[in-house]
């Protein structure tokens, strides 16, 4: 099913779904997109947000979803320093929401709350992992201060009835660090292509990411920017939401755009000729998908997940290699036909990752778990 497929009219109403999402990064965009697609298919959806308060543009995004119940929460997320009191309080809040909403399925975009006794099938989605982040970014095991994190993740995975990752690479990394999971599945993230129309291309390179997260490679891109004929623009937060995490250094060569609302960022994607994400660690790369839908030529970090999604439709560079990144970008800057072809290839590939396909895969997963629960095969309360 392509990104342009629509649900048939008159389709049966879907299950009641309680989703969680943090408000810090790409998980929110993924969750909002999925909520919209599920609502379109007749599902009753409640979204419980976690982390920092919703921004004005996030509220506007959720207001577009008909019938969506939004339950806003705040507090530290499980990957932050000393989060466990907040995580426990959030768990109690989720159980309270579930008692009122009475979902058929709970869809958790984090690990720890997979251990809670919701009494219905639980899907845990692996969007990232601190242990695999340390392996890829620091080339070392996570320090002992994350032993509690390791324990809570394992408990959440053990409590899940299905564990989903957006790429095979992420699922392998999860099992390498945390052991085998029950019913591990790969469901790629998706975006609605009509939100990212290509526009007349302009001579600049764009990157949109959490600039404070060294995994994204923004510092490498900034260093390469000083060697390019075209300007490099960086969109995204420079300050970490975790006060224990240092923010990003101010760029020396690239131009910072700050954090942009989704509609504004879509315009920048449409205008940019090249999108660069020289990541050291990226479980899926939602921003690369958005840029590709807008027809940008992609230059990406050569990591397993990005190769899995974009092989044959992007240029790849070794993470952290300023020389290779600058050379690759310069080559594309000075070769207009190759640049246009890379943009066409990226868009063709991106159209395979529509939100409709993502929603259908999740609905099939929910349906399978509910059928097994009716047969008594899913305990639903671990």
Account of the 3D structure:
The structure is a single chain. This protein has helices at 26-40, 56-63, 84-101, 130-138, 147-159, 168-178, 218-225, 262-271, 286-293, 304-310, 322-333, 336-350, 355-374, and strands at 16-22, 44-50, 69-72, 105-108, 122-125, 162-165, 184-186, 202-208, 232-235, 255-258, 272-277, 297-301, 315-317. It is globular. The protein is an alpha/beta fold and 382 residues long. Helix 1 crosses helix 13 (355-374), helix 7 packs across helix 11 and helix 9 (286-293) crosses helix 12. The protein has 2 domains: 16-191 and 354-374, Rossmann fold (3-Layer(aba) Sandwich), CATH 3.40.50; 193-350, 3-Layer(aba) Sandwich (Rossmann fold). The chain is built from 13 helices and 13 strands. The longest helix is centred in the last third of the chain and has 20 residues, at 355-374. The strands form 2 sheets. Strands 3-2-1-4-5-6-7 form a 7-stranded parallel sheet, sandwiched between helices. Strands 10-9-8-11-12-13 form a 6-stranded parallel sheet, sandwiched between helices.
CA(first)-CA(last) distance: 34 Å
CATH architecture of the largest domain: 3-Layer(aba) Sandwich
Tally of discrete structural domains = 2
Instruction: For the largest sheet, list the strands in their spatial order.
Output: 3-2-1-4-5-6-7
Helical proportion, percent range: 40-55%
CATH class of the largest domain: Alpha Beta
Element-by-element helix/strand order: EHEHEHEEHHEHEEHEEHEHEHEHHH
* Biggest sheet architecture: 7 strands, parallel
**Residue windows where pLDDT falls under 50 for at least 5 positions:** 1-12
Count of alpha and pi helical runs: 13
CATH superfamily of the largest domain: Glycogen Phosphorylase B
- As for the CATH topology of the largest domain, it is Rossmann fold
